[in-house]
Amino acid sequence: MATKNGQIKIEKDVLVGSGVHIYVSNHKFDDLSLAIYYQGHSEEKSVLIKEGSWLGANAIILPGVTIGLNAVVAAGSIVTKDVQDFTLVGGNPTKIIRILD
């Protein structure tokens, strides 16, 4: 299901570990002549966490990412791209560790 820009949608039966951060925008840093402080924020992108997934402690989910059905994000991981259904990912940036069957 699609969500509007800048929303975080968490479906049912999702586990969220302590210290998890979910972001829908980031600082701009395109203009080298201007301090990042003054450049504002990027366009908001929604995040979707699908049913039955598990976000391990201190995971970071970046703007525009979808975490798939029953997917697992290992503790301390930084998720920069979508995670497919039934997949275990981990690391910085995350990589597929294995497919869950």
UniProtKB/TrEMBL annotation:
Matching InterPro entries: Hexapep, Hexapep_transf_CS, Hexapeptide_acetyltransf, Trimer_LpxA-like_sf
Swiss-Prot/TrEMBL keywords:
Repeat, Transferase
Q: Which GO terms describe its molecular function?
A: O-acyltransferase activity
Domain of life (superkingdom): Bacteria
State the PANTHER family in the record: ACETYLTRANSFERASE C18B11.09C-RELATED, SIALIC ACID SYNTHASE-RELATED
Annotated family = Belongs to the transferase hexapeptide repeat family.
Quote the protein name from its UniProt record.
Answer: Hexapeptide repeat of succinyl-transferase
Protein's organism: Domibacillus enclensis
